[in-house]
UniProtKB/TrEMBL annotation:
Residues 22-39 have a biased composition (Low complexity). Residues 1-19 form the signal peptide. This is Lipoprotein. Keywords: Signal. Residues 22-54 are annotated as: Disordered. The keyword Signal applies.
Length: 192
Protein backbone atom coordinates (compact mmCIF):
# COMPACT_ATOMS: atom_id res chain seq x y z
CA UNK A 1 0.00 0.00 0.00
CA UNK A 2 2.87 2.38 0.85
CA UNK A 3 4.45 1.62 -2.53
CA UNK A 4 1.19 2.34 -4.32
CA UNK A 5 0.75 5.65 -2.46
CA UNK A 6 4.40 6.55 -3.14
CA UNK A 7 4.05 5.78 -6.85
CA UNK A 8 0.81 7.79 -7.05
CA UNK A 9 2.46 10.74 -5.28
CA UNK A 10 5.42 10.59 -7.67
CA UNK A 11 3.12 10.42 -10.72
CA UNK A 12 1.12 13.40 -9.42
CA UNK A 13 4.31 15.41 -8.86
CA UNK A 14 5.54 14.63 -12.38
CA UNK A 15 2.15 15.63 -13.81
CA UNK A 16 2.21 18.96 -11.94
CA UNK A 17 5.78 19.66 -13.09
CA UNK A 18 4.86 18.91 -16.72
CA UNK A 19 1.78 21.13 -16.54
CA UNK A 20 3.82 23.97 -15.03
CA UNK A 21 6.48 23.62 -17.73
CA UNK A 22 3.83 23.84 -20.43
CA UNK A 23 2.29 26.91 -18.81
CA UNK A 24 5.53 28.86 -18.40
CA UNK A 25 4.84 32.27 -19.92
CA UNK A 26 7.05 33.46 -22.77
CA UNK A 27 9.92 35.71 -21.87
CA UNK A 28 9.09 39.39 -21.65
CA UNK A 29 10.26 41.42 -24.66
CA UNK A 30 12.83 43.23 -22.51
CA UNK A 31 14.55 39.97 -21.53
CA UNK A 32 17.42 38.68 -23.61
CA UNK A 33 16.22 35.55 -25.41
CA UNK A 34 18.50 32.77 -26.59
CA UNK A 35 19.09 32.44 -30.32
CA UNK A 36 16.92 29.83 -32.01
CA UNK A 37 18.75 26.54 -32.50
CA UNK A 38 18.42 23.08 -34.03
CA UNK A 39 20.76 20.40 -35.29
CA UNK A 40 23.80 21.95 -33.63
CA UNK A 41 23.22 25.30 -35.36
CA UNK A 42 21.93 28.68 -34.21
CA UNK A 43 20.64 31.67 -36.19
CA UNK A 44 19.35 35.17 -35.62
CA UNK A 45 15.75 35.90 -36.58
CA UNK A 46 15.21 39.07 -38.64
CA UNK A 47 13.49 41.90 -36.80
CA UNK A 48 9.95 42.53 -37.95
CA UNK A 49 9.30 38.89 -38.83
CA UNK A 50 6.50 37.51 -36.69
CA UNK A 51 7.35 34.28 -34.89
CA UNK A 52 4.55 31.75 -35.26
CA UNK A 53 3.53 28.99 -32.86
CA UNK A 54 4.72 25.40 -33.00
CA UNK A 55 3.90 23.40 -36.11
CA UNK A 56 4.46 19.76 -37.02
CA UNK A 57 7.98 18.94 -38.26
CA UNK A 58 9.16 22.58 -37.93
CA UNK A 59 11.68 24.02 -35.51
CA UNK A 60 10.58 27.58 -36.33
CA UNK A 61 8.09 29.44 -38.50
CA UNK A 62 8.11 33.13 -39.32
CA UNK A 63 5.42 35.24 -41.01
CA UNK A 64 6.44 38.13 -43.25
CA UNK A 65 3.75 40.79 -43.75
CA UNK A 66 2.53 41.31 -47.34
CA UNK A 67 4.41 43.88 -49.41
CA UNK A 68 2.45 46.74 -50.93
CA UNK A 69 0.22 45.31 -53.64
CA UNK A 70 0.17 41.75 -52.22
CA UNK A 71 -2.67 40.33 -50.15
CA UNK A 72 -0.91 37.18 -48.92
CA UNK A 73 1.92 37.12 -46.41
CA UNK A 74 5.07 35.05 -46.93
CA UNK A 75 6.25 32.32 -44.59
CA UNK A 76 9.67 31.05 -43.63
CA UNK A 77 9.54 27.47 -42.36
CA UNK A 78 12.66 25.95 -40.81
CA UNK A 79 12.85 22.17 -40.65
CA UNK A 80 15.20 19.80 -38.85
CA UNK A 81 14.54 16.05 -39.01
CA UNK A 82 17.52 14.69 -37.07
CA UNK A 83 20.97 13.35 -37.85
CA UNK A 84 21.03 11.47 -41.14
CA UNK A 85 17.39 12.45 -41.86
CA UNK A 86 15.75 14.72 -44.41
CA UNK A 87 17.34 13.36 -47.56
CA UNK A 88 20.21 14.47 -49.77
CA UNK A 89 20.66 18.15 -50.60
CA UNK A 90 20.20 17.68 -54.37
CA UNK A 91 17.06 15.59 -53.85
CA UNK A 92 15.54 18.36 -51.72
CA UNK A 93 16.41 21.03 -54.30
CA UNK A 94 14.65 18.90 -56.95
CA UNK A 95 11.66 18.39 -54.65
CA UNK A 96 11.36 22.15 -54.07
CA UNK A 97 11.60 22.76 -57.83
CA UNK A 98 8.82 20.20 -58.30
CA UNK A 99 6.53 22.37 -56.18
CA UNK A 100 6.52 25.06 -58.89
CA UNK A 101 5.22 25.23 -62.46
CA UNK A 102 5.58 27.72 -65.28
CA UNK A 103 2.54 29.82 -66.22
CA UNK A 104 1.73 27.33 -69.01
CA UNK A 105 1.60 24.46 -66.49
CA UNK A 106 4.88 22.84 -67.51
CA UNK A 107 7.46 21.81 -64.95
CA UNK A 108 10.12 24.18 -63.64
CA UNK A 109 13.61 22.78 -64.18
CA UNK A 110 17.00 23.64 -62.72
CA UNK A 111 17.61 25.88 -65.78
CA UNK A 112 14.59 28.00 -64.74
CA UNK A 113 15.89 28.61 -61.22
CA UNK A 114 19.03 29.87 -59.52
CA UNK A 115 20.92 27.51 -57.27
CA UNK A 116 24.27 28.06 -55.58
CA UNK A 117 26.58 26.16 -53.24
CA UNK A 118 28.62 28.29 -50.85
CA UNK A 119 30.36 28.24 -47.49
CA UNK A 120 29.04 30.49 -44.72
CA UNK A 121 30.67 30.50 -41.28
CA UNK A 122 32.42 27.24 -42.18
CA UNK A 123 29.13 25.53 -43.17
CA UNK A 124 28.18 24.20 -46.60
CA UNK A 125 24.96 25.93 -47.66
CA UNK A 126 23.00 25.33 -50.85
CA UNK A 127 20.53 28.04 -51.87
CA UNK A 128 17.65 28.01 -54.35
CA UNK A 129 15.61 30.84 -55.88
CA UNK A 130 12.59 29.86 -58.00
CA UNK A 131 9.52 31.73 -59.28
CA UNK A 132 6.26 30.54 -60.83
CA UNK A 133 3.00 28.93 -59.81
CA UNK A 134 3.38 27.36 -56.39
CA UNK A 135 1.62 24.02 -56.19
CA UNK A 136 3.00 23.02 -52.78
CA UNK A 137 4.35 19.77 -51.51
CA UNK A 138 1.24 17.69 -50.93
CA UNK A 139 -1.86 17.97 -48.77
CA UNK A 140 0.02 18.94 -45.58
CA UNK A 141 2.76 21.03 -47.15
CA UNK A 142 1.24 23.50 -49.58
CA UNK A 143 -1.72 25.51 -50.77
CA UNK A 144 -5.03 23.85 -51.55
CA UNK A 145 -5.08 25.65 -54.91
CA UNK A 146 -2.12 26.62 -57.10
CA UNK A 147 -0.75 30.10 -56.38
CA UNK A 148 0.58 31.94 -59.46
CA UNK A 149 3.18 34.67 -59.03
CA UNK A 150 4.89 33.01 -56.09
CA UNK A 151 8.57 32.70 -55.23
CA UNK A 152 10.65 30.39 -53.07
CA UNK A 153 13.95 31.23 -51.44
CA UNK A 154 15.36 28.05 -50.00
CA UNK A 155 18.55 27.08 -48.23
CA UNK A 156 19.96 23.88 -46.83
CA UNK A 157 22.67 24.30 -44.20
CA UNK A 158 24.72 21.16 -43.56
CA UNK A 159 25.12 21.22 -39.78
CA UNK A 160 27.10 18.96 -37.44
CA UNK A 161 23.95 17.05 -36.43
CA UNK A 162 22.28 16.96 -39.85
CA UNK A 163 20.87 19.42 -42.37
CA UNK A 164 18.68 22.39 -41.51
CA UNK A 165 16.15 23.39 -44.18
CA UNK A 166 15.05 27.03 -44.63
CA UNK A 167 12.06 27.48 -46.97
CA UNK A 168 10.66 30.98 -47.59
CA UNK A 169 7.56 31.02 -49.84
CA UNK A 170 5.05 33.69 -50.73
CA UNK A 171 4.02 36.23 -53.37
CA UNK A 172 6.99 37.46 -55.44
CA UNK A 173 6.89 41.08 -54.16
CA UNK A 174 6.64 40.00 -50.53
CA UNK A 175 9.47 37.49 -50.87
CA UNK A 176 11.56 40.16 -52.66
CA UNK A 177 10.95 42.52 -49.72
CA UNK A 178 12.21 39.77 -47.36
CA UNK A 179 15.23 38.78 -49.45
CA UNK A 180 17.77 40.92 -47.53
CA UNK A 181 16.44 39.63 -44.19
CA UNK A 182 16.62 36.04 -45.46
CA UNK A 183 20.22 36.58 -46.56
CA UNK A 184 21.09 38.15 -43.21
CA UNK A 185 19.53 35.16 -41.42
CA UNK A 186 21.63 32.74 -43.53
CA UNK A 187 24.79 34.73 -42.78
CA UNK A 188 23.99 34.41 -39.05
CA UNK A 189 23.77 30.59 -39.14
CA UNK A 190 26.67 29.07 -37.20
CA UNK A 191 27.61 26.11 -35.04
CA UNK A 192 26.54 26.46 -31.41
Amino acid sequence: MKRLLGAMTLMAAVGVAQAQAQQTPPAAPSEQQAAPEAGGLTWTSPSGWETQGARPMRVATYRIAPAKGDTDSAELAIFYFGAGQGGAVDANVKRWLGQFQKADGTAITEKDARSKKETVNGLAITTLDVKGTYTGGGPMMGPSTPKPGYRLLGAIAEGPEGPLFFKLTGPERTVASAEKGFRKLLESVKKK
